[in-house]
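Morning run. Coffee first, then this:
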Amino acid sequence: MERVSARKTAAPRVRRARGAQESLASIVLVFESIVAFLAGLAVFGLQALPAGIGQWWGIVAGSVIAVLMMLTAGLVRHRWAIAFGWVLQLTIVVGAIFVPALVLVALIFGAMWAYATIKGASLDRRNARLAAEAEQRNGD
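And here it is:
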């Protein structure tokens, strides 16, 4: 006698399609989060904070910014997260008050963020237009 399984087979979950802007922006933020954490260590190691402020705040600030960048990387599908990413870019610029070398980091990652968000959105619009044209040709 054959045994019939009572378990239902669940259909595999379909992943949400990610656009170019979302993919590129999240990659930039995740890599920049590593640099932000290391920048916090540099602020601590160089004892760059003013007297009266514990140098360990450099590590705390770098860690908080790194975590915020990683969380934002997971949320870049929302418009507000893209805007918040720009705010995070500005925080790196502000960090240059304490360690001037962060200006270079801010320029490099700021340019990468700009490219990811602006060009990524352009690619998404183009891909949507091409998909709509293909659908019209197919008569669907």
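The mean pLDDT is 90. Good start to the day.
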